[in-house]
Design a protein that fits this description.
Elements: H1 15-47, H2 50-88, H3 94-100, H4 102-130, H5 136-158, H6 166-202, H7 209-248, E1 251-253, E2 259-261
Antiparallel strand pairs: 1-2
């Protein structure tokens, strides 16, 4: 009992209550995230159109699918925890079981907090992206964080579960689904970013005649600069190749110790190879 690691911020008799509170808080955070995404979807349809609306809808739909996958994972994890407690506590109470396995319980609490925090951050990042005040990269990072935190929750649950547990199998399947949905968020975010950047670069519909002429001249200057730079790089490449051929050529050692380059092969019509002789 004395050697067992003690919690720094939570009393052992409170661990059981903390697990239930954190799992409930995580579920609530996910439900709130789903509601906020639905609100963002409605707002995006009212305030945007064309390519931007298409991109926003695709990103928000992928975020919604991810939230649903996380919600199912949390529910399955809760069922597995109840199964673990019931099969392992024996005559002890639920609170005593969590206190006895304090290190495992604290890991479970930490993992649950990470999942809820990741869901909240994802929604906030998606909101900023839709409003064009945030970065697409934030959304990608949040997706990776969610995948990592769900893996942490699965690992914490797996430690005490029976290998033959059906709930464990369901939890692992839910984890794979979360990873797949997180990858979909990353893919939709990247493709949407490319679409928006391409549209912003090539959209000249709102320019005046003077503005168009100015842009045209600036682009011509860039083209000439790039062509000049390209020509210079080609000359540099040719000189590098000459030096490479000179250093890589074969040399014959002379009697006086000097090295003479081997004569370059003459260009001509290649001779027909001799026919193989019969043995």
């Amino acid at each position: 009992q004395e050697l067992r690691p003690k919690s720094l911020d939570i009393k052992q008799e409170e661990l059981g209550d903390m697990v239930e509170k954190e799992m409930a808080s995580t579920s609530e955070a996910i439900e709130d995230a789903v509601r906020r995404i639905e609100e963002m979807m409605s707002q995006a349809r009212n305030e945007s159109s064309g390519v931007k609306l298409e991109v926003n809808e695709r990103i928000l739909n992928s975020c919604t699918d991810l939230m649903k996958a996380i919600r199912l994972l949390v529910m399955t994890s809760t069922n597995l925890q109840k199964e673990i407690v019931e099969s392992g506590r024996g005559a002890a109470t639920t609170q005593e079981f969590y206190a006895k396995n304090s290190r495992w319980t604290e890991g479970l609490i930490s993992a649950s907090k990470a999942v809820g925090w990741g869901a909240t951050q994802l929604v906030e990042s998606a909101d900023r992206v839709v409003l064009h005040t945030g970065k697409y990269e934030e959304l990608i990072v949040c997706s990776h964080e969610i995948a990592a935190s769900t893996a942490q929750l699965v690992a914490a649950s797996k430690v005490k579960a029976e290998k033959s547990s059906k709930n464990l199998g369901r939890l692992q399947e839910c984890s794979r689904n979360v990873n797949e949905m997180a990858a979909n968020v990353v893919a939709s975010t990247k493709s949407g970013q490319e679409q928006i950047e391409e549209k912003d670069t090539m959209d000249f519909s709102g320019m005046s005649l003077i503005k168009l002429k100015k842009e045209e001249m600036e682009t011509q200057v860039k083209v000439l600069e790039l062509e000049k730079r390209l020509e210079g790089e080609r000359v540099r490449l040719g000189e590098l190749r000459k030096q490479h051929y000179a250093l890589a050529g074969t040399y014959d050692a002379a009697e006086d110790g000097e090295a003479k380059p081997a004569p370059a092969p003459r260009r001509g019509i290649p001779k027909k190879p001799p026919l193989a002789q019969k043995p």
